[in-house]
Amino acid sequence: MSSSVHLLTGATSGIGLELAARLLADPACRLVVGARRPEAAVALRALVGPDRLEILPLDLASLASTSAFALSVERHLAGEKLASFAGNAGLQITGPRRLTADGYEETFQANFLGHAVLIERLLPHLAPAAPVVLTASGTHDPADRGARLFGFRGGLFVGADRVARGELDPAASPKQQGMDRYATSKLCAILQVHALARRAATDGPRFIAFDPGLMPGTGLARERSILERWAWSTVLPVLARPMPGASTAPRSATAYAKILTGRVFPRGTGLHVNFTLAETPSSRDSRREDWQDELFRFAERVALER
Length: 306
Ligand SMILES: NC(=O)c1ccc[n+]([C@@H]2O[C@H](COP(=O)([O-])OP(=O)(O)OC[C@H]3O[C@@H](n4cnc5c(N)ncnc54)[C@H](OP(=O)(O)O)[C@@H]3O)[C@@H](O)[C@H]2O)c1
Description:
By secondary structure, this protein is α/β, with parallel strands linked by helices. It has helices at 14-24, 42-45, 63-77, 106-122, 145-149, 160-165, 174-199, 226-239, 249-260, 289-305; strands spanning 4-9, 29-35, 53-57, 82-87, 131-135, 206-211, 271-274.
């Protein structure tokens, strides 16, 4: 039986854990996962034996850790090609701005820059036409009514350098600035998907942004207030059900797995796809080629410096 190896980030909880379970349901599938604390990935380890799951340390908010992870993956693959790459890890900070040891705003680095560096490093190890998927979010789009309901107002691309420092709208409240940084990190992910797709060879990897919809109950609200965390995990999963943009982690993971295994969009690249597996337009801003190019050059420079 020929087997395939897929790489995931953010597979210790939420949609990523569900996604790992769906991929591993195929006995021919093996996973390489990057996790901040591999020893704490108990639920992930419970899915399958170590012969089909390699968990390697990865903190996307550290360029040293990201580089070390890329090296470990290269060693682990030993010449084998990756069948897919899912940049799914993400966090939301609603408190004051946090800078990483590398000098970047943490949401930007963990959600976007770390993944961009990893993709750059691992491109030679991807199989032809392998899907490279970044987890996006409707919050990137100022026209997304569901996201607006929760106080998001879309990504604010104010130039790569300012975005990287998290200096978006200093006049807004600290909480709003945190939400803006999250939405902007997702806008950056989509800009990068478009930039990479425009540069890819015709027989090279394919680049897709996946919007999983609103999935209340995951770990994403972990930095919010006690009350917000309580609502996120108890009330919202019920209240959100009839909302058009709402999904669940299991449902969205099923769609995600179909993209990663090429069962849908087997040749598509530069796509923005939602959890119903519909190709949907991303925001007008995300289609600006000048911003795509500026961000691509920024991430490429950071990757080359490592
Ligand atoms: N939930 C929603 O409504 C929603 C909507 C749209 C998009 N999304 C996106 O979906 C993705 C998954 O989120 P989720 O809702 O499933 O939340 P989650 O349960 O909190 O999962 C987030 C994952 O990212 C990992 N992670 C966070 N920071 C990291 C870092 N610095 N380095 C490495 N891994 C890191 C976490 O690992 P640890 O175990 O180390 O914490 C965890 O595995 C995120 O990209 C999120 O932005 C979620």
